[in-house]
Amino acid sequence: MNNKPLVYLAFLILVLGGGLLIGANNVPGDWYQSLAKPSFNPPNWLFAPVWSVLYVVIAVVGARTWLSLRRSMGMRLWYAQLVLNFAWSPIFFGLQDPTSALIVILCLLVAVGGFIAASWRQDRTAALLFLPYLAWVAFATALNGAIVTLN
Q1: Are 70 and 138 a contacting pair, CB within 8 Å?
Q2: How far apart are alpha carbons 1 and 60 in whole angstroms?
Q3: Model's pTM, two decimal places?
Q4: How far apart are CA 45 and CA 34, in angstroms?
């Protein structure tokens, strides 16, 4: 019996479900609206679709890595990035603490970059799939840093 579809489904439920649940419980509110934001701040409606697509990619990469390199450094870094990713919104929006969130997102940026580096030789496809995620996290890091600076 081939359990690949179940592994992919489990990762999709974990990542997309977890991300949507965290997002629904940490909605930008009046506090966020009152913050000074940089000129490159995208419209609020853009974040949910971008993160939804990225969560699907993160799930696919996690399933690929689980199926072929379960005990690798790449898998450990994949877990680390997920924990950091899921921690950011509750810290930024829930605790209203952009400075602590900046530390978390900097660690996330390192974990995503580390995953790409660790996976490059063993699963180039997984590493390449994480490049848009790395770009978005780098952008989000710059945005978080600008918000800290402006407020």
Answers
A1: no
A2: 20
A3: 0.94
A4: 17
Element at 63 (helix H, strand E): helix 47-69
CA–CA dist 36, 134 (Å, integer): 25
- Judge contact between 124 and 64, C-beta under 8 A: no
Contacts of 149 (CB under 8 A, 6+ apart): none
Q: Are 55 and 19 in contact (CB under 8 A)?
A: yes
Both structure tokens of 108: 């996330």
Burial class (CB in 10 A: 0-12, 13-18, 19+), 72: middle
The stretches of 13-129 forming alpha helices (DSSP H) are: 18-25, 30-34, 47-69, 73-89, 98-119, 124-129
pLDDT in tens, 45-98: 999 899 999 999 999 999 999 999 899 999 999 999 999 999 999 999 999 999
Q: What is the mean pLDDT of the chain?
A: 95
